[in-house]
Amino acid sequence: MQDSRVLMFEARGRSSRSAAIDVQSVEATNPRVQTGPHGHNDLELLYFRSGSGPHMVMNRMLPVAPGDVVLLPPGVVHDLSMVDAAAGWAVAFSPTVLEGMTGLGQSLQLWRSNPLLSPFLAAESSTEAGLFHVEEVNRPRWESLLQGLEVEFRGLGAGSDLAVRAYLLLVLLEVARLAGDIEGELRHRQEPVLADAFGVIEQHFAQELSARDVAEAVGMSPGHLTTVVRERTGRTIGEWITERRMAEARLLLSHTDLPVESIARRVGFRDPAYFNRRFRQVHGVSPGAWRK
């Protein structure tokens, strides 16, 4: 039974229109870390970039190591205050964040029906089932996605709410890759195709990349892949390629002093003028205005 004295947090959007999500940096000075035992009314994902010592989850002592991922279903009480030199991210979110991106039930009552959230369901019955470890070679990709998610969450620019959802979906697809026990369910719903397609985009978005290229990489015809991705996400492969490039462009505009022309080339646009036009179409402002 949950202790009524334990502080419970709930993810809320930045506005009435924003996705119900909360992204926190895990560090010793964070009040959430200092709070001690607490829980969340939503789903929560923890990623440890560094740290050691015990992470208490439902009175279970779990040792922390760099690259650890912990999934916490709603209502689970945990305590980060004893983790030494903790650094990473905590992402709490309502399943409504995935609205329009999976074609499945999104309410908190129906989250168990969404295959991308199946790892959280496994963690509900067994704490250990929600523990994963990211190998060192894959950590830069994880940390880039989580950093991008935090940047978009903190930002108030045009398109940031959509970018938050896109980044979260990419993180959940990475979790799905770690959770091999849900492969059958994902395959039944064709989510492995989605995972593979997003993986190709993530690896090659900074190069010349078309929907046909992605289809060839996953072994499908362009028409079939387009149908599957549109049915699952409401968007085309081309739109997802553009969104990934724009997300990276926003990150570089916010955190570097690189010229816009250099950023254009880094995110897969040979022609800076075309990049400027596409950026303005997506965000309503030029890259230079976004940076200001």
Automatic annotation (TrEMBL):
Record lineage: Bacteria, Bacillati, Actinomycetota, Actinomycetes, Mycobacteriales
Positions of the HTH araC/xylS-type domain: 195-292
Pfam families: AraC_binding (PF02311), HTH_18 (PF12833)
Any one GO molecular function term: DNA-binding transcription factor activity
SUPFAM superfamilies in UniProt: Homeodomain-like, Regulatory protein AraC
Keywords: Activator, DNA-binding, Plasmid, Transcription, Transcription regulation
Organism of origin: Rhodococcus sp. NS1
Name of the protein described by the UniProt record: HTH araC/xylS-type domain-containing protein
InterPro entries recorded: AraC-bd, AraC_XylS_family_regulators, Homeodomain-like_sf, HTH-like, HTH_AraC, HTH_AraC-typ_CS, RmlC-like_jellyroll, Tscrpt_reg_AraC-type_HTH
Matching SMART domains: HTH_ARAC
